[in-house]
Design brief:
The chain has about 290 residues and is of the alpha/beta class. The protein has twelve helices and six strands.
């Protein structure tokens, strides 16, 4: 890896160098008095000037941090930020992250690490959505806020849960946060417990005080109903073990088994019947398709 260092601290720039017929663009942070190229493989350095800079053929992000897992996730996040609909904020977020990662001894203002796009997305919330657990751990260590809402009323935790990133959920719970942040009725359907896709995450949420009982979305559907609708058998099993009502009626007088059948989740239908789900009287619906 080759690193350009320059004089003015904190200003991210791009420079392109050509060596051995390969052109590379390096993202650099201004730091020292002399502009030079450090060849880490050969442990040598050489001064360069602007005449040596040319158009890039290959783009690299220079990261000094030795944690390879964090570096790789930051490189992925930078690509995501480059495509963000709020390029100005995304660019600043990117610069702040590279500064924080490359220069851990420098104090980074919490306002910088928590800077958000016009959609109220932070580096942490975007990382949670994409499963960057190592980067999230680093961001939290630098003061990133774990509990905040995007304009779509998603939190980092709800994004991690809805995208089934167990490792991110585990990191977020290392220092406890509430899994019950969505208290307004119109947003309850975005609560993490309504969007679990695996038993492991459901278990982790409940172990960290997620409410499951007497919790209903704006259609009066329980987390069990949603799990049946979405076809997650292991989550259905977990919610039944947790004591949720197998025959709960929503506002349309439909129970969990109706949604499982309507969406073709016959394994769940059969499981619910084996656990005592009613299929007669009000629960008997047209074209019941148990297989």
């Amino acid at each position: 890896m080759k690193k350009l260092k320059r004089k003015r601290i904190g200003n991210l720039k791009s420079k392109t160098i050509e060596k051995n017929n390969t052109r590379k663009r390096l993202q650099i942070i201004d730091e020292v008095d002399t502009e030079f190229v450090l060849d880490e493989e050969n442990h040598t350095s050489q001064e360069i000037d602007d005449n040596e800079l040319s158009q890039p053929l290959k783009v690299e992000t220079v990261l000094v941090n030795t944690d390879d897992a964090v570096n790789k996730e930051l490189e992925k996040l930078i690509k995501i930020l480059d495509e963000n609909s709020d390029p100005a904020a995304a660019c600043t977020i990117k610069n702040n992250l590279i500064t924080a990662l490359n220069y851990p001894e420098q104090s980074i203002l919490m306002a910088d690490i928590n800077l958000r796009t016009k959609n109220n997305e932070s580096a942490l919330s975007i990382s949670a959505k994409h499963g960057f657990a190592n980067l999230i751990q680093f961001l939290i260590s630098r003061g990133a806020e774990k509990e905040h809402f995007t304009n779509e009323f998603q939190t980092p935790l709800s994004l991690a849960v809805s995208h089934n990133h167990l490792n991110v959920v585990e990191v977020l719970f290392e220092q406890w946060i509430s899994p019950n942040s969505h208290t307004e009725p119109q947003f309850l359907h975005l609560s993490p417990i309504f969007n679990v896709k695996s038993r492991e995450i459901a278990q982790l949420l409940v172990e960290n005080d997620a409410v499951t009982h007497a919790l209903y979305n704006n259609k009066n559907q329980s987390p069990l109903t949603i799990a049946c609708q979405n076809g997650y058998l292991d989550v259905v099993e977990f919610f039944l073990e947790d004591g949720l009502d197998i025959n709960h009626f929503d506002n349309d007088n439909k129970t969990p088994i109706f949604y499982a059948d309507a969406n073709g989740h016959h394994d769940i239908v059969n499981f619910l019947i084996s656990e005592g789900a009613q299929t007669t009287s009000r629960l008997l619906f047209d074209n019941f398709k148990v297989q």
